[in-house]
Amino acid sequence: MVLKRLRKKLRSLVSRIFRKQKDVRIGLYGPVNSGKTTLANKMCMDWLGEELGKASVVPHETREIQVKEKVTIENGGKSLSFNLVDTPGIATKIDFEDFIKYGLKNKAAKQRAREATKGVIEAIKWLDNVDMVLVVLDSSRDPLDQVNITILGNLDARSIPFVIVANKVDLKRSQASRVREAFPNYNTIGISAKTGFNTEELYNHLLENL
Amino acid sequence: MNLKIRFVPYEKFKENHLRGFLGSMRDNTIILIDAKLTPEEEANLIKETMEKVSGHFSGIELNSLELANGKSMDGIGKFKNAIIERIIGKKRGLTIIGPAKTVRQIRKNPEELLLYM
To answer: Which of A81, A88, A104, B28 is positioned for an S-S bond with A72, CB 3.0–4.6 A?
Structure first.
């Protein structure tokens, strides 16, 4: 079991070392409605002039992996090109009745739930295909949710470098400091993907670390 | 409503994977496992749960306590615990899994788990 894990880590490290710069994949992971697609759209608008996908307050709007290729960020003479991978929010439960509360009809709600479950499975499988992850958390919610802990634990176990993005700092009830205190061993950057607040620090972090 | 609490030894959980246990979720059974699941096991549990989600079963709530957390053990204690865990082949602790239709949330409050029904 230990040898198997060691082999897996070694394979992942070698793959990342020899993968060409242009094939770098940065994944956006996190719980449902944390702002992953909003952040993806912000990054794509800033550097490509076009959005990646549709964001919504209705949970599980993103139900498939969405990739935007050749996103290039630049600052202070440095540049980085990567493929941006937006993933469905990870959840341990999906109830179609929740979608009905947002105005969907019964049939559409059940279909959305079916698609959402497949999306969660795909997101977990795609952990094997990303080189770095932005773990997007809603800073107005309790960071010590089991989903968050599972995501971070899996990234650690696979030796995938990541940074925690404490999103939604524009909200009054937001507490980015609570996210930092919950995960003191990891880098946390507080931003608002909606307003663009402090996204420059995030871009600089990517430039410095990849 | 009657709730059942079912104890599942970690070794049995590993052998049977999750199919048998997720079936019992529909009977309002809460499962206790005598170990902290690894992140990969948690991720596999989520994947298998998603495959089982239907009109009657919306998923699970889960949380766990680990024996060797930062505050309760000093360096020597952690080292001893690491040796014991290597020998017994599992992380010492407790995992609770409950059906989401019955258990609204399981919160960790450093050294205790709170179930909200």
So the answer is: A81
